[in-house]
Design brief:
Strand content of chain B: 15-25%
Shape of chain B: globular
CATH topology of the largest domain in chain A: MetI-like fold
Bound molecules: adenosine-5'-triphosphate, magnesium ion
Order of helices and strands of chain B: HHEEEHEEHEHHHHEHEHEEHH
Largest interface: A-B, 23 and 28 residues
CATH architecture of the largest domain in chain A: Orthogonal Bundle
CATH class of the largest domain in chain A: Mainly Alpha
Helix content of chain A: over 70%
Radius of gyration of chain A: 31 Å
Number of strands of chain B: 10
Distance between the termini of chain B: 42 Å
Strand content of chain A: under 5%
Structural class of chain B: alpha/beta
Number of helices of chain B: 12
Oligomer: heterodimer
Largest sheet of chain B: 6 strands, mixed
Number of strands of chain A: 2
Largest sheet of chain A: 2 strands, antiparallel
Structural class of chain A: mainly alpha
Chain lengths: 458, 317
């Protein structure tokens, strides 16, 4: 509550600093010619008042929870709580909810008693944090306002602030990625302390046993991930691409080179709708329509076929990623200069010769980039394979057979009640990290290819 | 598809005004005309006008003695609703260079593109009228447009080499049309075309480098080499020198002189001196209409129309 109050106060202070800065600058202007427009002086004060205080609040508020909890536990009431983690956590979180008014009364009697203690520390730390934030805002405002002079370059100052904000915005995405990698890495290392990395990377047996707790008998399973990665590549990078590359490329060529403007204006959005269909819907389609048809077809050929198959999942996934391939290809084909096309046509080349020999080579980087992005999208895809590819970790090249993928197994490992330090659960993180690394490499290759050959024409 | 070669007849039996351009143009059919850079100022209306007028008495028949390579008859072009050309009738001869001049936007490029049906590639463009190549209607359904463009080559205003090697740029057309039997044959075609385009000495050691890495002038000559590699019958050049320095321009003009006689050449230019130097026939366009078409020396020394006179003397914008 107090932090919310502090936030509002900071905003108000910043707004006032902005107004004051502007009007002071106006007053100065009457005497001398200003280096910067009054609005910049206002913005300068506003930013100085707002940003440091906000930053502080952003860092403080997660910290505060930890501080309060530690303080509560170190009080006599806190020490009296049961030592067992789960029971204690249940009480403290209840007490916290009572203290903040999210709940009337506790299920545990201890929590009701603990609530006032919580209340006390919430107020104390909230007061410290909120007060400091307000002080920061006031200091920033004062700094900004004292600098209002005719020759003060507020414009350049604001520019620096904006650049800083832009950098911060872009850092958030990067830091998040980093955080994800680190958390995956941490769990993965724990996994590798239980299961040797060599077994995980090179083993061909995958059967994490389904024991609920580590103390049950036979808790060690086999964690060879090769069949999973094979299944992933078989479905996402082979079967799906055999479908998506030709179809996507040909529809892009048709749309950019042959279709009249009217047809294009209807077909292109229709094609892009494919990308907006929820993957769960594709999953139904794959499991209910395509998979039985594929099985019957396989059986009619005399090939052993199962009701869930790599082919069914791969076909539908291929359809799903057509828009990824085609829209990238479309963009890069359309970006090939008309002069290049005219040059070829004027030599007496036909349209398809022009496309094959001039347009596609020039558009290749974009096409390759689109394909690689589509592959990384396909191997990360979960829903279709969960519904249509099956769970059996087969190492097979028979597309009519059931295979499983990394994402399916992650889902399997993490659904239901899990204990977060059994190898079975931790294996999911190792799989996640491996998948992340693979898609990262694919994306890097895509980016390099695109950048390397981008200047083929100009 | 064979070119009908007829003995070159002389048209210059009538005495001409003694300006430099006329003297140069008088060499019209006598072979390669020497460049005359002294011709820099606009010609004065000459006192000898009467001579020319008498010579022009037999107009509009310009060349009664030979069949033109291409004949355009009442050609109009519309871009959507907008008419860009109105009833243009011109002949292009296979032993002469025809220059198209006129202010910007008057339809020179549009007309050039009619001659190899490149207007087909522009959505909304519509061409009416009659155009013949060796007596065949190029707009008839029987005409294979791909074949037509192989016979009527084009060099664009802006150099547009393919993002391929220099060698592959020149080999592109011959490969498509199957003109070479084997590598040695192709090498010969590439070398011959680059030599004719005056580029061979500059690029012979780096044929595998990208054509887009050449300088603008070299690129333009590469495009010319590419166009002549398929041995077309007509070459259309749309302001081939507009982006070039005087030295590269001189090289291309020299090349045009050399190519004349082998190919029918039509060239669009904004440079009056260039039109006077390289062409034997000049067509003046204005606002989508053909104002005047005749021998270059006549157009430049004694135009029939006031508008032509104004344009070539620079009094018109
Ligand atoms: N693709 C097109 N779509 C619509 N209008 C066009 C198109 N190309 C040319 N035009 C119009 O047709 C007219 C003639 O254009 P054109 O390009 O033939 O002129 P130009 O004589 O070659 O001019 P310049 O000397 O500037 O190259 C112009 O008014 C132009 O706006
Ligand atoms: Mg033009």
């Amino acid at each position: 509550m107090t932090l919310t109050f502090a936030l509002i106060a900071v905003l108000l202070i910043a707004a006032v600093a902005g107004f004051l800065g502007r009007s002071r600058a106006r007053a100065v202007r009457d005497g001398a010619r200003l280096n910067s427009l009054p609005i910049y002086h206002g913005a300068y004060g506003f930013l100085w008042a707002l940003v440091p205080a906000l930053l502080f609040l952003a860092i403080w508020s997660p910290l505060q929870g930890r501080l309060i909890e530690d303080a509560v536990l170190s009080t006599p009431q806190g020490q009296a709580l049961p030592a067992f983690d789960m029971a204690r956590d249940a009480i403290t979180s209840e007490a916290y909810e009572i203290a903040t008014g999210q709940r009337e009364a506790g299920f545990n009697p201890e929590s009701t008693a603990l609530a006032p203690v919580y209340q006390q520390f919430i107020n104390r730390y909230g007061g410290i944090g909120g007060g400091f934030a307000i002080l920061l805002a006031l200091a920033g405002a004062a700094w900004g306002l004292t600098r209002v002079r005719a020759n003060f370059r507020a414009r350049a100052g604001v520019e620096r602030w904006l650049m800083g904000l832009l950098i911060a915005a872009s850092m958030i995405a990067i830091l998040t990625t980093l955080g994800i990698v680190l958390s995956l890495l941490f769990e993965t290392l724990r996994f590798f302390s239980m299961v040797p990395a060599s077994e995980f990377l090179f083993g061909t047996q995958w059967s994490p046993q389904m024991a609920l707790r580590a103390d049950q008998a036979g808790s060690s399973g086999a964690f060879g991930s090769i069949p999973l990665f094979w299944g992933t590549i078989f479905i996402g990078a082979i079967i799906a691409m055999i479908v998506a590359i030709p179809l996507g490329l040909m529809s892009a060529i048709f749309l950019t080179q042959y279709a009249p403007a009217k047809v294009r204006s209807v077909m292109k959005p229709l094609l892009e709708i494919l990308a907006g269909v929820p993957t769960v819907v594709y999953g139904y389609f794959a499991a209910l329509t395509v998979a039985p048809a594929v099985r019957d077809f396989g059986l009619s050929l005399g090939i052993p076929a199962s009701s869930e198959s790599a082919l069914a999942a791969g076909l539908v996934m291929g359809i799903m990623i057509i828009p990824f391939v085609s829209s990238m290809a479309d963009d890069s084909i359309a970006a090939v200069p008309q002069a290049m096309r005219d040059g070829s046509l004027a030599m007496g080349a036909t349209r398809s010769e022009t496309i094959r020999k001039v347009v596609l080579p020039a558009a290749l980087p974009g096409v390759v980039g689109g394909v690689l992005l589509a592959v990384s999208r396909a191997i990360g895809e979960t829903m279709i394979v969960v519904m249509a590819a099956g769970l059996a970790a087969n190492l097979t090249a028979n597309p009519f057979d059931s295979v499983t993928t990394v994402t399916v197994q992650i889902v399997q490992l993490l659904t239901g009640d899990q204990e977060f330090d059994s190898p079975k659960t931790l294996a999911a993180f190792a799989l996640g990290l491996a998948l992340f690394v693979i898609t990262l490499i694919l994306n890097l290759i895509a980016l390099t290819v695109v950048r390397r050959y981008r200047e083929a024409y100009e | 598809m064979t070119k009908e070669k007829q003995p070159i007849t002389t048209n210059s039996s009538v005495p001409f005004p003694s300006t430099a351009v006329a003297a140069e143009a008088a060499q019209d059919d006598a072979g390669i005309a020497k460049e005359d850079t002294a011709w820099t100022q606009a010609p004065e209306p000459t006192p000898h006008a009467a001579d020319v007028v008498t010579e022009r008495a037999d107009a509009p028949e310009l060349d009664t003695d030979r069949t033109p390579k291409m004949i355009a008859d009442k050609v109009s072009v519309f871009y959507g609703e907008k008419q860009a050309l109105r009833d243009v009738s011109i002949q292009v001869h296979d032993d002469k260079v025809t220059a198209f001049i006129g202010p910007s936007g008057c339809g020179k490029s549009t007309f050039l593109r009619c001659l190899n049906r490149m207007n087909d590639t522009i959505a909304g463009a519509r061409v009416t009228g009659h155009i013949e190549l060796d007596g065949e209607d190029i707009n008839s359904p029987d005409m294979d447009v791909v074949q037509l463009r192989a016979r009527v080559g084009m060099v664009f205003q802006k150099p547009n080499p393919f993002p391929k090697s220099i060698y592959e740029n020149v080999a592109y057309g011959p490969r498509i049309h199957g003109l070479a039997e084997g590598k040695a044959d192709m090498d010969a075609i590439v070398e011959k075309s680059l030599r004719r385009a005056g580029l061979w000495d500059e690029v012979k050691d780096r044929l595998q480098e990208s054509g887009t890495a050449l300088s603008g002038g070299q690129q333009q000559r590469l495009c010319i080499a590419r166009a002549i590699a398929v041995d077309p019958e007509v070459i259309l050049m749309d302001e081939p020198c507009s982006a070039l320095d005087p030295i590269a321009t001189a090289k291309i003009e020299e090349l045009i002189h050399e190519l004349r006689g082998r190919y029918a050449i039509a060239i669009v230019t904004h440079n009056m001196q260039q039109a006077a130097r390289v062409s034997q026939r000049t067509a003046f366009f204005h606002l989508g209409e053909l104002i005047e078409y005749g021998k270059t020396k006549d157009i430049f020394t004694n135009p029939r129309e006031q508008r032509t006179q104004d344009y070539i003397t620079g009094r018109y914008g």
